[in-house]
User: Fold these one by one.
Assistant:
Number 1:
Amino acid sequence: MLLPYVEPKFSRDDQGLFNTLVPFDHWTRRSDKHIDFAELRKPLEALFSEDGRPAIEPVLFLKITLIMYHDNLSDGQVFARTKTDLAYRRFLGLGRDDYLPDVSSLSKFRARLGVDGHKDLFHGLLSQARTHGLVKDRLRLKDATHTLADIAIPAGLQLVAQARNKLLNAASPFDEVRVAGERVHIETIRASTDGGGNEARLIGRVEHLRDILAWVDKLTIPHDASENTTWKALRKAADVARKVLNGHDAPDEPGKIRSTVDPDARRGKHGEFYDGYMTDVMIDADSELFTSINVLPANGNESFDTITLLEQELEAHGNDIENISIDGAGYDGPVIRKLESEDGPHVKVFVPQKETTNGGKFTSDEFDLSEDGSHATCPAGEQSQYKQRDDGNHTTSFRFHTDTCHSCPLRNACIGGKQKFGRSVRKNDFQPEYDMVRERAQTDEYTDVKRDHPKVERRLGELINRHGGRRARYRGTARVFAQQLMGAMTANIKRMIRLLDADGPLALC
């Protein structure tokens, strides 16, 4: 049960102590001045039952979390810090004789919030910034970076063994005798393959994992499967085992599971290869406040996530964004068309153009496509003879006859001297979108927009370097998403109080 919110009140002695020792330009005092924490509490009230024992005040946990991300502390460290730091005790509404709850209650608070609760807090603060007139809808800036997963990457043998052990542990409540037999079989496999090299050891363990998964999949589904947490844990372990086996069967396919400890983490590349997640953000170019954030597996589609970020902000605030600036990842025809469509976010997209060069030869742009799309015409006026469709890449290839190309007076400007076949040209379904953004990149408006773009890189760097966003504190996409939401919320509070105190003393935050 959640009691009505009451603003903290201090005794005269405590108030005198805080006034003497806590600077009046400290970020916590300025936060209390400009941030309405009682308003942020409102969307959380529905998460508590209407009866039972009174709950610990959620604003207390929210403020503890903000301190944790502000100073990049762990759960234990933030509780130790708030026991002795007068500025933080004042911020939390704790006098000298008041006690903090147990440190374990903070993780329970996070679990109660879930992803939706963290999003409500993030966008609730952003709504306050909009009320203050800080957030404009003129331009959004988008960028992404990598977040390292909280895992150690096991070798192939270890990964299979981890998946097997997790599956057996989860299956034990449903068939204890069978699980005991499988554990004996593990020792048999170990003894029979120890002298056969890593390949033989891996094959034996993979086949054993297949056998275990086969009988687990045949277990009788309990009548309360939708609420049975033990059954859900088994199905989750089975899914992880299945992903491990798929990665073994198709080693060259992307998106392989990297660890059974955090099965959501993937391998991606950001400069160098890494294992973890991609943190994708969008900021308001005028206030430099984070307006939406998302977390994807490391191999996620950064370009398409632009739509997700815009829709997240639109759903929360119902605003109408005019323009968006994206780096080279946004040079994606389907995404550009969706972003500019009246059926989509309907924003004006600014992305760097990609030069279409062909080693000094004629480019595909110089080949005219017929109105019915049946053939292409080259600069010499010849028509293509062959056509091939590639739906995956949204392209159609047109090839010219070998004899036509070899006898063409423009051959040297079109194909190499040693090329045996005729010229092939690929036309993209989204060529109008690519032409549009290339033409837009030549305008003064584009220059002005791209002059603002480094702001998002600086803000993303602050989130990553000052608020612990480079490394995942938790495991699983949902938990890492909640982490980055709170880090961005903390960064937004710092930015808001700087903007709102622009005419007063500014403390270093």
Number 2:
Amino acid sequence: VWATTLGDAWTDLPLQPVYLPFVHRLLLHAAGWREDEPSRLVGSSVDPATLIPPAEREDQEAPVLVMPGGERRALDATGEPVVVELSGIYEVRDPATPAPRRFAVNVDPRENGLIAVDSAAFRTAAAAPDSVVAPTAEAAETAAGGREPGRPLWWPLLLAASVLFLLESVLSNVGRARATVGGVP
């Protein structure tokens, strides 16, 4: 219950910065306006009445919901809620409106949360009997300190590249020191 006027006769509310947003929200609430959700989550249900604008539909064909996979489903404003099961862009095609209405369905962000896992539980799950594979002879040789199969020259090439980088650095500094002898570059 609002117990005062919207003018400045009884209160200084119209002079405050909060007045205009307050009046906007008051009018939206009185009109029963609901803000459109920019996206929904996979597995949530969507009320068809929120997807279809109210209109006389006696002589028009029903709106169609086009799912990300291309499947089409007729919508009825009084029908049961639609459960969105695929992530992607859904499109509502309504003959009463010129442009299709789209909304996004995203995977729940809690599914990609990084949580700490007990190392013992991880080892137990990783060493399950059905996932154990017998090591090959090459893998056994590699584990015993032999050369890695398929890459026998990786360490000499790495050593040669490191020596070349070090030599290039030393030579570039020696050349610069000779050029600045006498204080003139």
Number 3:
Amino acid sequence: MATKTKEQELFDLIDIEDFKDRVVCGYNDGSAELGLAADLSVARSIIAPGTAALRDFSYIGPDAPVLDNANCVGCMECVTECPDTAILGKVVPADEYERRLAAFDTDAEREQFAGHFNRTRKFYDAVEKKGGKPGMFGIFIDPTKCKGCAECVEVCGEHNALHMEVKDDRGLEWFKTGWRHFLELPDTPAEYINERVLTDMMLSSEALSTFTGGAGSCMGCGEVSALRMMLAATAFVHGKDNIGLVAATGCNTVYASTYPYNPYTVPWMNSLFENAATTAAGVRLRWDQMGWGEKKIWTLGGDGGMIDIGFQALSRLLASGMDVNVMILDTQVYSNTGGQTSTASFFGQEAKLSAHGKARGGKVERRKEAGQIAMVHPAGYVAPTTAAHPNHLHPA
């Protein structure tokens, strides 16, 4: 019998299904604080993957997005930008769609199901023209994950395919029924996912499954949008079983580990504020020793953890030439206090607390731009980008 590694012995301490049934359900029904026993997983600060999927935020926001299906063009921007994995798309072959539609008993059921779908040029007309099987494109909202931030409505913009409605006007059960339709549908067939149209990766169950939603982040958190997009792209190319995350202390480590809720289904760990980069280097070395050279490691942190107090660790990592990806998150995107100017971003960037002009004196300061500093090191690829522009972020 093969000898187990220390890592395997550690994770044998936690039974994932037991953790979900005993711990997560205990927190969900309110009994955990009264009688949940301490155990080895708690002592080791281990949280089972994907437990945030069991979290219910349907009571958080009074409003939820509703699809105006006739206006939907299948651009996927709402799915891409949602910070809570609460709005998802799916393509169903037209014949399968018709079969399911005919199976409903009442006109009301058929109307609700059909209201999630539209015949788009992208997935129906263009596919049919090429001789393929046309597909119906659908948008679905998970009411247990949606916090009502309306980011999806914002990015939908001129298409006007989404609007916010008070949940009580339709009734929460109406939203839950729509989500059940999504769960009962098969995965989007691969022939509808165009690898050259990178937003289409959000149709891939492999890419989407890396972040469940249910994180304790603020409503409309811009940081999570960036992390979801990064995770989806990495999983789409390399597979979700080939990803590891090392995070500097910050918001992402708080909302992703509000015990016992973990939205990640990929392995991740939290390091000290200033040494996430060197911790990632240690993980990279250990993985290489184990023959896991094909796995991708991301280290995450804000400008404080990476460029201010953590710069020496980041510089050493960049100089090493190791295969470690680094994501530096803009402080004004994720900071608990909000509105601060990122010291790592470019000099001309506006921030709420540093607007400068004739009307407001504001604050003027030089910045040590992360992109310029990183390019001084050998053999690195640097891409200052923004989650607001997925056609730039995904290729980068």
